[in-house]
Structure formats: structure tokens, C-alpha cells
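REQUEST FORM: STRUCTURE PREDICTION
Request ID: SP-0412
Submitted by: Lab K.M.
Chain count: 1
Length (residues): 140
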Amino acid sequence: MSRLTRPFLLLSLLCVSLCTAAQLPREDGERMRYGIEIDMRGAYLSGICSMLYEDGMLKAAIVNEFGVSAIAFTYDPRKDKVRIVSATDKLDKWYIRRMLRHDLRECLHCLQQGVFTYENKKRGMTYIFSHQDNPLTSQQ
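STATUS: Completed
RESULT:
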């Protein structure tokens, strides 16, 4: 019996460490960065999604490779609501904002569960996140 418990404990410890690495920031001042790719019909956006937990809310921005802010949003975990703060001109339409609010909320739910991909089959959009180390925390 002890021969089976040791591998099981090691495997469960590995699973717990992998799942906690994929979670969202939860404490004030905590930051996380993800690489993001958004694949749409006829369009493609990739860049970095920076997240900061502050005052009980998650504040995030998606910035493309050129440093241009594509989307800035906040997420209130108590109300489970996403609010789009700003978007580029091409994304700043009421129907696109509504879809982005829904999709970003679902993406955040997926990230909390350790899933790095979300697909909106109705709209033909795929969101792919990749965890990146925060240079500020890795140097300390």
C-alpha cells in the first residue's frame, strides 16, 4: 500500500502546483501576465494580457506586439461582471463590446480552472492564453 501512496501523493502535488500557477491574481497588488492570441474570422490579434488585482477588482489590459492597447477591462469577482474600459476604434462598437464582455468573462473562468483556451463557436473566435513569468517577481 505504501508503494502506491508515494506516487499518488507526488502526482497530486504536481497537479496542485500546475493548477495554482494558472490562477488569476487574488490579493491586492498581485500581478500576472499572459501571452494571448485571439483568432477571429478574417482577423488575428496577439500580444500580452497584463492583470492586476486591486481594490477587490481585477484590472487588465491587452496590448499588441507594437505596444498599442487593444482592450482595457475590469472584472468584479463578487458580481462576476466584466466592464470594458477602453477599446481600439475597430473594436469600439456596442455589439463587439457585448461579445467581448461575455467572452472575457468566460476566459477568466477558464483561467481560474487552469484551462488556457476558450472557443466561442457561435462567433468563430478562439482565445489562447500562455502563462508568462512576471520579470518583477522572478528577479526578486
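NOTES: The radius of gyration is 17 Å.
Reviewed by: T.R.
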